Amino acid sequence: MTVQKFFLTFGGTGLSPKAPGTVGSFASLLVGLVVLHYFGMQTLFMLTFAVTIIGIFEITKYEKATGTHDQQQIVIDETSGMWISLMIAYSTAITLDYPYVDLLAIVLSFLTFRLFDIWKPSTIGWIDRELKGGFGVMLDDVLAGIAGGFLSTLILMGIGKLV
Length: 163
Hints:
mainly alpha, 7 helices
């Protein structure tokens, strides 16, 4: 496996025969949690930024070389989106004070990101359909991550009012 393919498939997780996007998202969540725990939010933010920018260029190169657009095995876009959703939800969780809020934020960040990534409502769907190259592949997942993070935040805040 080339370095490019290793990167684009997030260490090979995108090569899963079933649900490669979900497998890649879950693997990304686990790596994101390790980065958060050992290195902090700022490092995860910078890593997300770097992966997103590098992903745009590498996906564009890969698509030109293969003549295909948004192959299922490419999950580096899910990595960026998942990390964005995690950062937003986790940032909310650390401001709230009720039992298991951090665990709930982690679970919600994953579920809501996958919801928006699969459903692709509104602008997310338009970007997925209309924008080509690495920019289009990455941007719909970045927006799905933002939407997932904000939905997670609303849910966490709502539960906080009930507790």
